[in-house]
Amino acid sequence: MASPFSSLPTVPARAMLFSISRFLVLLLHGRLFDSDDLLVPVVILGIGMVLKLLVHLLYLQWQASLCKTAKRSVLPTESISLPRHR
What we know:
Blueprint: H1 11-34, H2 39-70
């Protein structure tokens, strides 16, 4: 039986993809704020923040539905009791 992780890129390939994407984002960021008009970068930043909030809310909704189907709580608000040392 094949591992579900067999289709993922190897660690060095993921590191290179991460480095390239970080370089491209920093390049785009520099070009946006290099312009005289600051309205465009601020609008792009605002759109990005709204999209991030939307994705986070959808993830929380999905996690809550998983908790209901599993009939147990795995939310971060759940208290965890740690064993006491003697």
